Amino acid sequence: xxxxLKGTLVAKRPPWLTLxxxxxxxxxxxxxxxxxxxxxxxxxxxxxxxxxxxxxxxxLYGFSSESERSLFRSLLKVSGVGARIALxxxxxxSVAGFYRCVREKDLASLTRVPGIGRKTAExxxxxxxxxxxxxxxxxxxxxxxxxxxxxxxxALLALGYKPAEISKMLKNLDAARLSTEDxxxxxxxxxxxx
Length: 194
Prior knowledge:
alpha+beta, CATH 2.40.50.140, Helicase, Ruva Protein, domain 3, 3 domains, 5-stranded antiparallel beta sheet, 10 helices, globular
């Protein structure tokens, strides 16, 4: 399994992008939510990935955050939902928005996502209800935040911190001024000194 790739962005033509990793060009399919955050070609890029092995192809999917990949993987387990529909969902609604729809059983909002009909939306509401993250409000707000703060929150979630702890850790940090790495470093430093 390929967990992540770090390299130089060579080309981006939705839904595909090409990432040069040590002289090997990886073709990666990604949702629009990831494309909106891509740098210009020639810049460094790290994506978390999911490799889907089918009878006729091996397809590598890339995501800008762990929360996107996690939702993608959960969606693939829903009856009748394949990679195309999962990417469509991630392209048409935020992770937080999707989980809010499931929690509130908001069928109307889900059917507004391109490619999601009423029957698929109903199946998603039923089958995803038991897959909602615990502490949905805190975790989803953190996972869906855009930019350095959102990435830092996703990284801290992946390290095992709880959403309430993460909120406290990042509360007094200047997310607009600090990079993702600096936010994580400062949050961890404060957690270990308090």
